[in-house]
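DM from R.C. (forwarded with permission)

"hey, sorry to bug you on a friday — could you get me a structure for this? deadline for the figure draft is monday and I only need the backbone to look sensible"
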Amino acid sequence: MSQARGDLRNRLAKARTQAAAGAADRARRGLTAFAEASAARGVSTTEIVAALADGTAAVQLGRVGLSGAPFPAGLDCARGCAFCCILGGADGGTITEAEARALHAALAPLAGRPDGRDWHPDACAALDPETRACRAYDARPMICRSYVSTDVSACESVAGGTAKPGPGTLGPYHDYLAAIGLGRAALKGTRRVTTYALARVAAAAVEGRSPDDTLSEARHKPSELDAELKRSRRDAGGARPAGLP
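My reply, with the result:
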């Protein structure tokens, strides 16, 4: 093992995050496995570090988790319900750089057309305002892939600011967030790990902003990831919404 690979492995082993303990443990194992598998395929340590920094590794870990996660029975999610796409929270939906760039690329060709905000002022601009279907479905970030509900009327209430049981995030989302936090801690002093606001990325893309300008406008302060990790720890450690694991 090269010195650079060994240093990265040690950094991941020592990294700490504010995520729930179980999620942090799974994320650490997943990131270590990602780094080792990448190295075995001949990927350089520089490229592995880049994948940790832009969130590619965290996204891969989350999607693998979702592919094997049992979905709760009785889900009420359907094309066009879209209340989960009303992004009124302070963070605007936390996503990685890799997800932000993929989302921008998917939405940029739609610049100038009506968007989800014509349906609801806080809706994601990726939505078609008539059908309320996502126009960037294949590029949707982890938060969109892992948020489910057993009661669409509860989603409408939550979107309006009233908490009700039914909606929630599946477990792999918490592992994904933990992986972002661990990557940031492991690379501290060497590479910046930044998260972005989903709402602002989508809006800037359909308004014709360039990828670099979009990321500049949508970039989170470090405290936004800290806050999302604390919310994740609370949600993962507390009672789950009805029907969710």
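R.C.: lifesaver. DSSP finds eleven helices and four strands in the chain.
me: no worries. The longest helix spans residues 21-40.
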